[in-house]
Amino acid sequence: LSLQVSERNNSFVTVEGSRCPVIRVGQYSTLTLPLQQIFSDRFADEFSLLVQLRSLQREEHSVFTMLSPDSRIMLQIRISAYAIIFIGTQQRHYEFPVSGLCDGEWHRVAFSVSTTHLVLYVDCSQLEIVDWVNHGLEIGTDGLLMVGGILEGFETPFE
């Protein structure tokens, strides 16, 4: 994503030390990119999603959302002070109890999605594995990727 982001709308890329690029999204900003810019052909049915983040916000907020052209959530990752929430198509909503993510320190969060399991890793340790039957999340590339931002007026935006 860092290659696609330009300094706009209170979102910009920095490099801390000699480490990886960091996308900074202001609290009242939304970084949006067309999925076609990120994925060439299609989004795979089996994938891993890796996010490194830090936050001091204790309220639940959306970190990452993929929207269809009609604004339907195809994939969303939400965090709060006590949980990570994975939302996918077909009414799939999984809430994993995790504390300490909103302590202002950097954390690595990863989801591994296969045809039989959804696995959550936090800070390189497997926290939970969920059995499921994944016939594909039906994520097309004609939608939109949203980092930060809000979908409903009552939500707290991510920073």
UniProtKB/TrEMBL annotation:
Superkingdom of the organism of origin: Eukaryota
InterPro entries: ConA-like_dom_sf, Laminin_G
Domain called Laminin G: residue spans: 94-150
Pfam families: Laminin_G_2 (PF02210)
Protein name: Laminin G domain-containing protein
Native species: Characodon lateralis
